[in-house]
Amino acid sequence: MTTNNKGFIQGLWDFFCSLKLAISLLIGLAVTSIIGTVIPQVPNIPEEYISSLSQTKLQIYDKIGFFDMYHSWWYILLLYLFTVNLVACSMKRLPRVWKIVTEPNLVLDEGLEKSLSLTRDLKLKGGLAALKDGFTGFLAKEFAAPVVTEKDGEVHLYAQKNPWCRLGVYVVHLSIVIIFIGAIIGSLFGYKGWVQITEGTSESKVLGRNNKPIDLGFAVKLEKFSVAFYETGAPKEFKSILTVVENGKPVPGYVNIPIVVNDPLSYKGITFYQSSYGPAGEGGTFYFTVREKKGGAPIKITARQGESVQLPGGRTMHVTESTQDVRQFIPQMSGPAARIEVHSPGKQPDSFIVFRNFPKLDEERGGDLVFSYDGSDEKFYTGLQVAKDPGVWIVWFGCTLMVVGIIMAFFMSHKRIWVRISSSGRVVVAGSASKNQPAFQGAFDELTGKMEKL
Amino acid sequence: MSSSMLFNVTTIVYMVSMIVFFAFLATKNKQIGLVGSWAAYAGWIIQTIAIILRWKESYDMGVGHAPLSNLYESVVFFSWTIILIYGIIELKYKYRVVGAFVVPFALLGMAWAQLGLHSGIEPLVPALQSNWLLYHVITCFLGYAAFAVACGISIMYLIKERQEKADGDSPAGGIFSMFPAIRILDDLNYKAIMIGFPLLTLGIVTGAAWANYAWGTYWSWDPKETWSLIVWFVYAAFLHARITRGWVGRRAAILSIVGFAATIFCYLGVNLFLSGLHSYGK
């Protein structure tokens, strides 16, 4: 029974230590990850997609977790297996590598000499002491300062470069675990939310996952929202001016802070990102000036959205749509504009656009009434993404570690040189590199070439 | 002189380079090989000037930004990085013939950009107005380019291996005799991926940093993000396969080609077939 148990645990351990498992998991993760890029994921599933699926298919997909597959039990299980695998692999291999790094073989005995492919036999003049000093100085100058060991009347020198780079692989493995820890902390103690604030008002609660309200502990006030466009009509900038209000007072340093896409506002670990905007309700009031073409004093008109307003001569008008910047629709024009509809008795309704920045333009329309648009007090709302993620710095630490580890593992090589000097003047030099042996061979040949002249 | 004219010249020079490389394969004349890689470098220098010129032109238009903002600009930059990585590998390891299988990728990119894509300079939409754009795009594309080079080398590997098997154990003859030995091709494949993998990692990390800065979440399983991770998994599998018995050589070459196919899907397929945050002003 005990042996059986031992056999099972040993088998389990070997299973988790195997490189084959690592390769299978990597390929398995790669293949399964494709599913979530093809099937829409919550919360962005279009209605049409749902209705295009048969009832059975829908139920099966839902059961397997295809609609939220990166959080499904089997995908998470793959990630756990992956983590256990890379920890086990590292635990198995690290002690041996650690020993190479911290307890190098200082003595070039025969066994070691045979195991190395780069060796060179030199015959030099001079006594043991002189050669020892000569080689020690030479290695320190041309390669790295050696450790000197005297054994059985022979002198052994050992010099190395970049021993730590052998740990690069394990640094990368560790970094993946750290990134996972950061992600777990973020999902346990952080949240993603959403808030909509109308100009001039403030909000102290945001909506989290499943529209659950979350109290911020302070309030955010939208002072003003503006949007700008390029001459082509493409959007140039969405800007919200925010003030943080705590205990009913604006917080110094957080008053009238402009935030745009790519430039958020952070307060107490909670960050607000510009995400969307729109007109706030239908409460806007529009202002126009109207005069008759044939002359007469201009009249000021005030109209609420959708409301019909009396005009001279039994005519009425109402605003059908409006914008703060018309450039997105008509690239040649700019500034606020409103489309109005004028009803004259016994005539077809007349629909046209008036522009605030071009007050004279309406004369060219040739109507009996000439309109100019004086703007509106229409308010905007801004949509802000809200995020709190206490794990994010752990994730960045992990990412940095990963890059450092990859550089150590890929671009640095642990180079070692051993020298054995006998009293007869016979000198054996041996070397090895953990990577790119051919390049090291060139350096080794050059080094031993210089040694001959010592 | 305009940048678009210079991009046309670049395309023609890359075509000349490719033809000369094919002639090199056929004639085995070393001088011709030299001309092939010189042509590629000349094209690259012209392309560099054209990219700088386009950058300047965008400032002259008043919408100044680095030319990395839409599909056209990214394809042009991709072909530039492919020749850059090829140049690094050629200068370091001296296997000129690899150019015959790498320059076509760059040419394909330039030809598609010049003939099939909208090349107008457009202002930057708010989502792209960030310095992260530069770091993210440069690292990603250098990584993609290294994978393109690795893919070219892997194709050479499979051709050469097949030829050697067909001819018995004797080294392959004909134009294949110009190919480096399969052991060397296997090693070059690995070296190219050793350049690409750190760059892809940096590309993903800078992308995550940017996403976190701009949207408040460093990872949202957006199709582009997921595909970049898929590519990362494939090359991570490749790197581990290298130290596993039975996975060196043929299987590694296949994995490298699969990796590049995933890379291309990540770069283009996601935009053409899937939806998400990375649609380059389609």
Report on the structure:
The complex is a heterodimer of chains A (454) and B (282). Chain A is α+β, with helices and mostly antiparallel strands. Chain A has ten helices and 21 strands. Chain A has helices spanning 2-17, 19-38, 47-52, 55-64, 73-102, 110-115, 128-142, 168-189, 392-411, 437-452, and strands spanning 118-123, 147-151, 154-161, 191-198, 202-207, 213-229, 235-246, 249-250, 257-260, 265-267, 270-279, 285-292, 299-304, 309-310, 316-323, 337-343, 350-355, 369-376, 380-388, 415-421, 426-433. A five-stranded antiparallel sheet of chain A has the order 1-21-20-3-2, with helices on one face. In chain A, strand 10 (265-267) and strand 11 (270-279) form a beta hairpin. In chain A, helix 2 (19-38) runs antiparallel to helix 5. The longest helix of chain A has 30 residues, at 73-102. Chain A is elongated and about 125 Å long. The two termini of chain A are 66 Å apart. The relative contact order of chain A is 0.14. The model of chain A has no long low-confidence stretch (mean pLDDT 89). With 282 residues, chain B is an all-alpha fold. Chain B has helices spanning 3-27, 30-60, 71-93, 99-116, 132-166, 182-215, 223-242, 250-273. The longest helix of chain B is centred in the middle third of the chain and has 35 residues, at 132-166. The two termini of chain B are 28 Å apart. The mean pLDDT of chain B is 89. The interface between A and B is large, with 45 and 43 residues.
